[in-house]
Design brief:
Length: 172
């Protein structure tokens, strides 16, 4: 998290099309889970990343403090959303490419999943969230939205939230 925005930069050797599907997966699943999109791009950065999806961090969210139902639901949504990018990319590529999602996986475990569970449970819990993310990506309506948004990202390279949601035919 940087400056009140949840970011998903990554280091990868994916094709531009795969990067677009990866970022579109984050957007569509995040939206379905109630996260508020800021913007999405398929642009290189100085950190070796080739795409970024940024969501707002709610003003009420604090990493420290008690774990209540609202905080748990938010962390679960973020965790599932981070995983959805690599799952969408893998579905499009026709093979799993978990190395391309290294930042996402590291960030999910290090910064998010450990807010909910002890490290000894992280791997098992990660698998469960991956199953949820896979079901969301594979949902026909979501997959159609991912495909449509990925095509728009390949053309425009960066979309603000209203443009991205409109391109994916998602209400904003």
């Amino acid at each position: 998290m940087k400056g009140g925005v949840i970011r998903s930069p990554r280091i990868r050797r994916s094709t531009p099309e795969q990067v677009a599907y990866h970022e579109a997966g984050h957007v569509v699943v995040g939206h379905r889970l109630g996260l508020t999109l800021v913007d999405v791009d398929v642009l290189d950065d100085r950190e070796g990343g080739h795409g970024h999806t940024n969501f707002e961090t709610p003003s009420w969210f604090r990493r420290d403090g008690p774990l209540d139902d609202r905080k748990r639901a938010f962390v679960e949504a973020v965790t599932t959303t981070f995983l959805a990018g690599t799952i969408a990319e893998s579905r499009r590529a026709g093979f799993e490419n978990w190395e391309a999602g290294g930042f996402d996986l590291d960030d999910v475990v290090r910064d998010w999943l450990l807010l909910l569970f002890p490290a000894s449970e992280a791997r098992q819990r990660l698998l469960g969230f991956g199953q949820v993310a896979t079901r969301l990506v594979d949902d026909p309506a979501n997959w159609k939205a991912i495909e449509t948004l990925a095509r728009a990202l390949l053309k425009r390279r960066r979309l603000a939230a209203p443009e991205a949601l409109a391109a994916a035919s998602l209400s904003g």
